[in-house]
Amino acid sequence: MKLLIAINSLATGGAEKLLLDSIPEYIRRGVEVDLLLLDGTDSAFLGELKLRAPHCRVISLGHGSCYRPWLVLQIVPILRRYDIVNVHLFPALYWVALAKLLSRSATKLVYTEHSTSNKRRNGRLLGAIDRFIYRRYDRVICISTSVKDALRQHLRSGDAKLVTIPNGVDLGQLHRAQPFAAAELPLLAAGKRLLLQVSSFIYPKDQATLIRALPLLAESVELVLVGVGAMQDECRQLAMQLGVAHRVHFLGVRLDVPRLLKSVDVVILSSRHEGLSLSSIEGLASGKPFVASDVPGLADIVAGAGVLFPQGDERALAQAITALLDDDVHRAAVVAACVERSRPYGIDAMLEQHLALYAMAADW
Predict the structure, then answer these.
(1) Are residues 90 and 163 in the same domain?
(2) E strand segments, the chain
């Protein structure tokens, strides 16, 4: 089986991190896998992938916007070389589907749906175009039940093409990670209590609610934000307006997230909606209490284990954080429940389900 994985780029993001972790594991299992990037601009994740999987061929369609329609013509001859192409994210979703139409190849197409919502699902025309594109795919992997339910409603179809395979993370790597010493990471100064969110600064992420919660917390509580994105400057400005800029640390892209998770007091994912984010699984497995917005995609996995707060409600968030920081018994109970909830979401289980799906491609 020759497998091609296609995505917009390997810039920071949950889907990109999924590929960084899974491609080396596919190769270790003897799968011949290449990676197609609409935008091959160098990034921390791309550099790390080349170190972890030097035998993975990376096919770049250039540098710049992923929204160039002529990328379709570049993809056409590439598709013919592979048995299966697994696509992640928009607009790669569209360009590969259109290339398949033009190529008339026998290549099987799989799309991995990561979100419960997007702007294309609003409006009659965009919705019709979206449904036409999804019909070009032989199977659609939905990363959670919420994602599957939302997509089924959008596509107005049954379950024949929709398969639920939860995302997975390397739980062993998380459990083995060692916290930073203060000499390695100065923001770990004595007396500080650190909150951590790992996510891109893009919609639907909601770092702003976290920043608004800081003035409601003790001065010793500080916020660590990992990731980059278009909304980062907006968050910096908000922190300055609220007088908490000195308590918010923007660390950019990090490849040592497991160690950061082990070094903070509370892990948080404030978001407007999710699929089944890797950050949520990592937060649950981190050995620290995990707090998340009570929204589709997050509520499914967190309820009954971590702490949920109403989306956008900084006061409720601040109360939840304070309870965890002040009550050792409560914190320990939440940590134990979170770790237990994370156990089914190992990367090995995810990969085995993917490979089982690919093995059935000849019968689609």
Answers:
(1) yes
(2) 2-7, 32-37, 58-60, 84-88, 108-113, 139-142, 162-164, 193-198, 221-226, 248-252, 266-269, 290-293, 307-309
47 and 179 in one domain? Answer: no
Q: What is the CATH number of the domain that holds 190?
A: 3.40.50.2000
CB atoms within 10 A of CB 232: 17
pLDDT in tens, 165-219: 999 999 999 999 999 998 898 888 888 999 999 999 998 899 999 999 999 999 9
Distance between CA 295 and CA 310 in Å, rounded? 8
Residues 339 and 354 occupy one common structural domain: no
> Does residue 129 sit in the same domain as residue 187?
no
Provide the domain limits for residue 162: 2-168+346-363
pTM over 0.85: yes
- Confidence category of residue 12, pLDDT binned at 50, 70, 90: confident
CA 101 to chain CA centroid, Å, is 29
Task: Report whether pLDDT(36) > 90.
Answer: yes
Residue 165 sits at the vertex; the CA angle it makes with 161 and 166, to the nearest 5 degrees, is 145
With CA atoms as reference, report the closest residue to 7 among 100, 124, 122, 95: 95
Q: For 303-330, what is each residue's pLDDT tens digit?
A: 999 999 999 999 999 999 999 999 999 9
- Let me know whether 95 and 68 are in one domain: yes
Residue 42 per-residue DSSP state = -
Q: Give the DSSP H/E element, type plus range, for residue 154.
A: helix 145-155
Number of domains in the chain: 2
Sign (positive/negative) of CA torsion 158, 159, 162, 165?
A: positive
CA atoms of 314 and 214, how far apart (whole Å): 8
Alpha-carbon gap, residue 156 to 225, rounded angstroms: 38
Q: What sign has the CA pseudo-torsion 147, 202, 261, 311?
A: negative
Residue with tokens 């909830």: 341
Residues 113 and 76 grouped into a single domain = yes
